[in-house]
Amino acid sequence: MGRSNSDGVSHSLHPFLSSSRVQAQYTYERLVCESLTLLLIANMSSKRKAPPPVNGAVIKKAKTSSSSSSSSSLTDPHPFYKDAEEHGIVLRKYYPHEMSNSRALAYNENKLPRPIEQLQAAQQETAAARRKVQVGDAVVHWFKMDLRTADNTALSMASTKAKEAGVPLIGLFVVSPQDWEAHFTARIRIDFMMRTLEVLRADLAKLDIPLHIETVGRRKYVPVRIASLMEEWGAKHLFTNMEYEVDELRREASIVRLLAERGMAFEVVHDTCVVPPGKLITGAGRQYAVYSPWFRSWVAHIHTNLDLLEEFDAPARNPATARQKFEKLFGSSILEAPLDKRLSAEDGKRYEALWPAGEHEAFKRLGKFCQERINSYGANRNFPAANSTSSLSVHLASGTISARACIRAARDNNSIKKLDGGNQGIQTWISEVAWRDFYKHVLVNWPYVCMNKPFKPEYSNIEWSYEKEHFTAWARGQTGFPIVDAAMRQVQHMGWMHNRCRMIVASFLCKDLLLDWRMGERFFMENLIDGDFASNNGGWGFSASVGVDPQPYFRVFNPLLQSEKFDADGEYIRKWIPELREVKGKAIHDPYGRGAAAIAKKGGYPKAIVEHKGCRERALAAYKKGIAADI
After folding, report:
1. Which of 243, 267, 396, 440 would you label with 17, given CA atoms 20 to 30 Å apart?
2. What's CA 410's distance to the chain center, in Å?
3. Residues ≥6 apart with Cβ < 8 Å to 202
4. 481-495 confidence digits (pLDDT tens)
5. Mind telling me which residues the site (Electron transfer via tryptophanyl radical) is annotated on (predicted)?
6. 32, 103 in Cβ contact below 8 A?
7. Was 531 annotated as part of a binding site?
8. Residue 474 annotated to the active site
9. Using an 8 Å Cβ cutoff, are 87 and 43 in contact?
């Protein structure tokens, strides 16, 4: 979901999850979880009474009281912090209260160090010591959300280091149940990761490379456990690809120092983004906060640095002695997810059929898309009934394919080898993939968006409704607005939703129901197979008008008009709402208002729970009041 309607590969709301975030003071994250949905419904009340670091884009300074300039304003929570806790947005088991607007702005004003700067400092301080480290008995690559052998930056570097020294390469994957709980990782996404690990282990085994998978019960012990494994294996070098969420960056900084103290080297490298964060700045030396000029800069930077699209070598085969030396590691099993994160057998079979796992399936999907649909993508991408998108968001979120591979494939299928020319459909798809880079760049420069704060801090002051019946109706696809309900039911069945529909249901939740956008953000993370924190957060910020480069708050999607425009024949609605399949013609968009009430009532389909026009007026008033609030 985002500024333009997109495929499942870009800025859309599909990707919803950050991986493992280290707990740290004033680390507040976007929290979303299946198990907490029921808690949220039960607790709802009616209403509440960058290397190198660059300056952020100018953001409107939120109004604050006279005491906001004091140090206490940076440690005090936001006045509405209890709402976020009562309704499951901030999980106090792991995170502090919602921060004040002043603290959020302190990052933008360079008064607080960004997590990327903390990692850079750790790397700089240990650089000399890391250079002196001699290769040990093995080299280790730590897999996270890069579950592939092809075009994997850190894995390729680790393999090169191991091959040059004539020692084995070991793969490591750490299961952290507390991170899954804290980040409310969807069961379907965990299932996809576990199935992907099976494919990855088999691929690595063909190269005599073991993949050790281990569960660490408490996430604060992950750094120490990794260090212990390194010592146990006699390894001196650990490689991994960088993740850009707050806790991940701080965790990596701590591991850099911990391993350096123990005479080991931890190399954290860029891989997820085609253009690493911090490379693109405005003429004023600031991070871009608007997508269009950022995208032009992104394209120009790649055209000038074509090596950014070069493919990294797959890992080399391990020495013949690897299997004997690390025999036990080759027997590492794929662990089952915790009971509260495990799918039923029936759901597991359905999702396995819908979403085959592993990098081979990712490349198969990419190839089929480029062969059959990419040329017409620009014209057809907005219509949910059409099979017009790539649905690669699932694979990009788990790293079974790189964004580089997607851009290369699009470029190579274009009539000219440019990213901003040639076939219009290909150009459009490239721009959609680029949104993923954009939102990750945003995380790095404005880290407070990982901490339950909107990009525009003053929008924290909006008085949201927490009407539990409305949230329940939205989540279950029972709002009485067919296009909204069809989309929500698609999620229930597939764990995925078309991006146009993501924007429709998000706008409906925030502006028609005036529910806190963070509840919807969390729900998506709880239920989507392609959960990616940056893209999910960016998409919800766009639709709720609280994020970077959003739609204006006074732009409110009319669900009826959206339905008529993007599902004119009602094919999508009829597919997902069986109660309405007998409704003929345009009545499908509004059965109770267009003469199909008897059919809808017979099927048990509900009447609309709200009236759009009145809700729009209420939303505009609430936004105006919140933005102007002196908090």
Report:
1. 267
2. 22
3. none
4. 999 999 999 999 999
5. 464, 517, 540
6. no
7. yes
8. no
9. yes
Q: Please say if 233 is a catalytic residue.
A: no
Which member of 298, 464, 474, 576 is catalytic? 464
The answer to whether 432 is a known catalytic residue is: yes
Choosing from 294, 298, 355, 540, the catalytic residue is 540
Ligand-binding site membership of 393 (annotated): yes
Q: What is the pTM of this model?
A: 0.89
Give the C-alpha separation, 312 to 42, whole Å: 49
**Catalytic residue of the set 180, 446, 474, 517:** 517
Does residue 30 have a pLDDT over 60? no
What does R_g of the chain's alpha carbons equal in angstroms? 24
Q: Give yes or no for residue 39 having a pLDDT over 90.
A: no
Answer yes or no: is 148 a known binding residue. no
Per-residue tokens: 403: 């964004």
Candidates 180, 233, 435, 446; catalytic one? 435
Does pLDDT of 17 surpass 90? no
Single-letter residue type at 485: D
According to the annotation, is 391 in a ligand binding site?
A: yes
Q: For the chain, how long is the longest CA-to-CA vector?
A: 78
180 appears as a binding residue in the annotation: no
**Active-site pick, 414, 499, 527, 536:** 499
541 is in an annotated binding site: no
540 catalytic? Reply is yes
User: Is residue 366 very low, low, confident or very high in pLDDT (cuts 50, 70, 90)?
Assistant: very high
**Res. 513: pLDDT tops 60:** yes
| For range 167-194, the mean pLDDT | 95
| Cα–Cα distance measured from residue 450 to residue 559, given in angstroms and rounded to the nearest whole number | 29
What is the CB neighbour count within 10 angstroms for residue 382? 21
Q: What is the DSSP string of 270-290?
A: --SSSS-TTS-B-TTSBB--S
| Structure tokens that stand for 376 in this block | 């017409």
Active site residue 576: no
| Residue 571 is labelled as binding a ligand | no
Q: Determine if residue 496 is labeled as part of a ligand binding site.
A: no
Distance CA 379, CA 376 (A): 6
CA atoms within 13 A on the CB side of 144: 24
pLDDT at 71: 56
Burial profile 95-105: b = 16 or more Cβ within 10 angstroms, e = fewer: bbbbbbbbbbb
Q: Is the dihedral of CA 71, 76, 80, 81 positive or negative?
A: positive
